[in-house]
Design brief:
There is one protein chain. It is built from 23 helices and 22 strands. β20, α22 and β21 form a beta-alpha-beta unit. By secondary structure, it is α/β, with parallel strands linked by helices. It has four domains: about 55 residues; about 100 residues, Beta-Lactamase (2-Layer Sandwich), CATH 3.30.450.20; about 150 residues, 2-Layer Sandwich (Alpha-Beta Plaits); about 250 residues, TIM Barrel, CATH 3.20.20. The strands form four sheets. The protein has an eight-stranded mixed β-barrel with strand order 13-14-16-17-18-19-20-21, surrounded by five helices. It has a five-stranded antiparallel beta sheet with strand order 2-1-5-4-3, sandwiched between helices. The N terminus is likely disordered. It binds ligand C2E and calcium ion (2 copies). Ligand C2E binds next to β14, α13, α14, β16 and β18.
Length: about 600
């Protein structure tokens, strides 16, 4: 635009006068003097134009720098110009919106009367300010705080409207406490799995010709050791900062946290540079994080895919991202892997197994519960048993629960499988009681997904009731990662309620997870189960010996029972006995056995333990 300049400066008039004088005056000397005046006036005018231009450039740069979106419309309310923040927030470029009525951005959330009031205020006062919901190019609706001013010409007619707006979706999210209804990850403030699913579905619906989505699932390598080494608070801070950095990197895209140390990124794009995009994310995130004086450089494992090439359904894309991530993890740490259909060949084999597992649950064949007894250390008396699932596959033989439980979790079979085990165990206890056998509590492993599903408690209590089995005969083993899984919400009150009913709770695989003392103190549990990993090399491994001794001392301080699992040798037993451990489970005492074999041992005991 050509800069305007003003003629209300004396030099300008003097210049004009000088110009006519230079033409009209008869004397050369006078003409020369007049021309000098003209020249001075011209220079002044030039300076003025330059200054004006400079101010305009500054103003434009300021608007470019502004984090607020800017939109100028003309008297007919057609968009004339926008700034870069407008594009960042809404996804629209100038050529998308030039000449359009801003109504084109409307979310459809406000009714006619809202816009009537808007125009009434703007026309009568020349300004409007308030919250308004608009829609981004890619379809997400978002709230903005909008300030509009009318600009007038000399005769008081509006020539332009200037609108400045701030994207307030993040504040809004807090305000509405979306968190409470479960859309926001409380630690990072980012969308959680559920919300991500919706956002992805919405982006897919709004894809235009030539556009695609790049998706990445990012997992922080060795996050557990950061948590263990620096403490959970530090780990939390790292996750929050990681989320922030990622969000800053993909402005206009979507960043969310799926739980734990898994983050998801989605962007709409017209570029075909998927691999470069992933490499860019990695590079940006591999800059060290400074947390409490520690400089942490993270390794990342990334699974990625693209829509619509790799699918155009949110559920399918989630699955494919996950299979890409699993494949990257299998490859080793700090790798990325884009989804390829051949990965699904792996998945195909797995899917076959999932189907077979499903059939096994439905038909009640091939699956069995074995029982491994637990003993008092000082006199060897049987004090409990752990229920362990077994799958006898017709082709593969015994499939380890360590393998198929992860599979069942990934494919949504865990609730059914978990319920099957609980029903089986409770029925078995009832059976033994009916035979007049004095019972010991039976401990059942509970997976995160059973807890997340939410109706675990009611089902459990109903089944106990149905078989008339006292709740004290059932214990639940939950690993630390289950207890910390945010998808299950705050588990403390739920555990408390179960304990009030008489059930016992143990933390399984203790020592391998994230637990901090502070966290442990708050949890309503009865027992710690010291993981086999620490027992294996006892008493010779100094580190394991120190850890075991420390856990035993700490548990005594907290009045928690400890049971050591995986005890295979007399040396291990003696070491534990000397450190004050009271209960053990392991091959030294008994292997997991089918119900009928345990039954013999149960009934051969004296009737010293009752319930
Ligand atoms: P876990 O809870 O740590 O179970 C203990 C595992 O250690 C069992 O393996 C058991 O057979 C084995 N074990 C016990 N004593 C010894 C010993 O002295 N030496 C050695 N080397 N191993 C010993 P298993 O039965 O293969 O189970 C593996 C994992 O599968 C379990 O680990 C548990 O996390 C999971 N699991 C088993 N049954 C269920 C179930 O019904 N539900 C759920 N959610 N998970 C289950
Ligand atoms: Ca266990
Ligand atoms: Ca274990």
């Amino acid at each position: 635009m050509w800069p305007s300049f003003s003629l209300n400066r004396p030099l300008a008039w003097l210049g004009l006068a000088g110009l006519s004088a230079a033409v009209l005056l008869p004397l050369m000397a006078l003409r020369a003097a007049a021309l000098t005046i003209v020249a001075i006036a011209m220079i002044d005018l030039w300076r003025q134009i330059r200054a004006e231009h400079g101010r305009r450039v500054l103003a434009e740069q300021a608007l470019e720098l502004s984090q607020d979106g800017l939109m100028i419309t003309n008297a007919d309310n057609r968009i004339v110009t926008i700034n870069p923040a407008f594009t960042q927030i809404t996804g629209y470029q100038l050529e998308d919106v030039a000449g359009l009525n801003p109504a084109a951005l409307s979310s459809g959330r406000h009714d006619r009367s809202f816009y009537d009031r808007y125009w009434q205020t703007l026309k009568s006062t020349g300004r409007w300010e308030g919250e308004i919901w608009n829609q981004r190019k890619h379809g997400d609706q978002f709230p903005e705080w909008l300030r509009v001013r009318a600009c007038y010409d000399g005769r008081g007619r509006a020539t332009h409207y200037i609108g400045l707006f701030t994207d307030i979706s993040r504040h809004k999210a807090r305000e509405h406490d979306l968190r409470r209804i479960g859309f926001e990850d409380p630690l990072t403030g980012l969308p959680n799995r559920r919300r991500l699913h919706d956002l992805l579905a919405s982006r897919l619906r709004h894809l235009r010709a030539g556009e695609g989505l790049d998706l990445a699932l990012i997992d922080i390598d060795g996050f557990k050791s950061i948590n263990d080494g620096l403490g959970v608070d530090c780990g939390d801070r790292l996750l929050a900062r990681f989320g922030q950095r990622l969000a800053a990197q993909v402005a206009g895209g979507i960043v969310g946290r799926l739980g734990g140390d898994e983050f998801m990124v989605i962007r709409t794009t017209t570029f075909e540079d998927h691999e470069a995009w992933v490499a860019g994310l990695r590079q940006h995130l591999s800059e060290p994080f400074e947390i409490e004086g520690n400089s942490l450089r993270l390794g990342l494992t990334i699974g990625s895919c693209r829509a619509p090439e790799d699918g155009n359904d949110a559920g399918v894309l989630f699955q494919r991202l996950e299979s890409a991530l699993y494949s990257a993890k299998r490859h080793g740490r700090n790798h990325d892997r884009r989804f390829r259909p051949s990965l699904e060949a792996d998945d195909d084999r797995q899917l076959t197994m999932v189907n077979e597992l499903h059939q096994a649950i439905v038909n009640n064949t091939q699956l069995e519960v074995h029982y491994q007894t637990q003993h008092r250390l000082d006199d060897g008396e049987m004090v409990g048993m752990e229920a362990l699932l077994r799958w006898r596959h017709p082709d593969y033989g015994q499939v380890s629960p360590a393998d198929f439980i992860a599979l069942a979790e990934r494919h949504g079979l865990m609730p059914a499988l978990g319920n099957w085990v609980l029903d089986q165990v409770i029925a078995q206890i009832a059976n033994w009681r009916a035979l007049g056998i004095a019972m010991v509590p039976v401990w059942v492993n509970i997976s995160a997904l059973q807890l997340i599903q939410g109706d675990l408690e009611s089902r459990l209590l109903a089944t106990l009731n149905q078989y008339r089995v006292p709740a004290v005969l059932l214990g639940l083993e939950l690993t630390e990662s289950v207890l910390l899984d945010e998808r299950a919400g705050d588990v403390s009150p739920r555990l408390e309620a179960l304990r009030r009913e008489g059930l016992q709770i143990a933390i399984d695989d203790f020592g391998t997870g994230y637990s901090s003392m502070a966290y442990l103190k708050r949890l309503p549990v009865d027992k710690l189960k010291l993981d086999r990993e620490f027992i294996r090399a006892l008493p010779f491994d100094h580190a394991d010996a120190a850890i075991t001794s420390a856990v035993l001392a700490m548990a005594q301080g907290l009045h928690l029972d400890v049971i050591a699992e995986g005890v295979e040798t007399v040396e291990q037993r003696d070491f534990l006995l000397a450190r004050g451990c009271r209960h053990v489970q392991g091959f030294l005492y008994a292997r997991p056995e089918p119900a009928n074999l345990v039954e013999e041992r149960l009934s051969k005991r004296g009737s010293s333990v009752h319930a």
